[in-house]
């Protein structure tokens, strides 16, 4: 098959001046990765891009708010609450979960932020406009039900949390959401390496996983973290930080997600920090137009999922997210999978429009715009079937 035509399709896949996984050649890279280098790279992402989330200073409590059988979907809907308490107050993160009824064993679950409108009995699954009010698109009457049934009929659950409950997507000086539970105006000023909103969202996804683990009907060993756009950035970081997630999926995550920052194609570090100054730690702001001075790049973020399966998806017309830069992250991340004798994307693989490539490291380039579609979900289900055996 011919690769998708673009100027980038002729870029050689060879050694680059990007940061290396190993600073020097070692005889046992897997051991070095697990005992030293992986943690070092996580720390670099914390200090220079996403900020460091709190490891302690909080208490968690879980509550089942609702359980309802939806016979027309052959599913049950559950609403869970994760109560987070600190010395400064309490916050509740609600998880809405749909599960197949006739499963006979605990179900694997796709977990993400704003995957659907949790206020509706039949959720609208699509691309949300994320903001203070969180609006969802109007879809054809049967489309939401068909897509949800497709996921449930394949044996998977689907769970979502509201990003704005975790941390409002606003540049408000971190006075609301999780940040307000860990830092007050009386405390010392925020440091350059303190977590931003994306870090808080990733932390919230892990707390939702904590809640899912309390349910016998959920197989907590097979929870897939997934996200679209800005939520894809959070999903990648959540998967990097929390190795309990069995699989990591990024849909059109772009700059600060799967796209290589050093390429400076589509959205750049300077632009994203100007428009969304609250997303990342303040240290990241210094790398606008200085991407080549970053000690890490996004292929290393993707590699932090290893040896777990990871899938990166792009859209042909989503040039703002730099589709080829997202592909290159998957390609270069494959080096770490080879430490585990797992094949990633080899040098002869190129993106083919509307075709999935790779095994443990998956990728597709879909026709169309910035969105998460039924085609995307079909590919994610196929990928999960291969690795998680629902």
Q: Determine the mean pLDDT.
A: 88
Q: Which class of secondary structure composition applies to the elements? A: alpha/beta
Largest sheet: 10 strands, mixed
The percent range for helix content is 25-40%
Shape assignment? globular
Short characterization:
With 390 residues, the protein is α/β, with parallel strands linked by helices. The chain is built from ten helices and ten strands. It has one domain: Rossmann fold, CATH 3.40.50.
Please characterize this protein's 3D structure.
This protein has 390 residues and is α/β, with parallel strands linked by helices. The protein has one domain: Alpha/Beta hydrolase fold, catalytic domain (Rossmann fold, 3-Layer(aba) Sandwich). It is built from ten helices and ten strands. Strands 1-2-3-5-4-6-7-8-10-9 form a ten-stranded mixed beta sheet, with helices on both faces. A hairpin with a 3-residue loop joins strand 9 and strand 10. Helix 5 packs across helix 6. It is globular. It starts with 28 loop residues before the first helix and ends with a helix.
Characteristics:
disordered N terminus, single chain, globular, 10 strands, 390 residues, Rossmann fold, 30% helix, alpha/beta
Task: Detail the topology: elements first, then pairings.
Layout: H1 29-50, E1 59-70, E2 75-86, E3 89-100, E4 107-113, H2 143-153, E5 157-161, H3 163-166, H4 177-182, H5 197-212, E6 218-228, H6 230-241, E7 247-251, H7 269-275, H8 298-303, E8 310-315, H9 323-339, E9 356-357, E10 361-366, H10 374-388
Parallel strand pairs: 4-5, 4-6, 6-7, 7-8, 8-10
Antiparallel strand pairs: 1-2, 2-3, 3-5, 9-10
Helix pairs in contact: 5-6
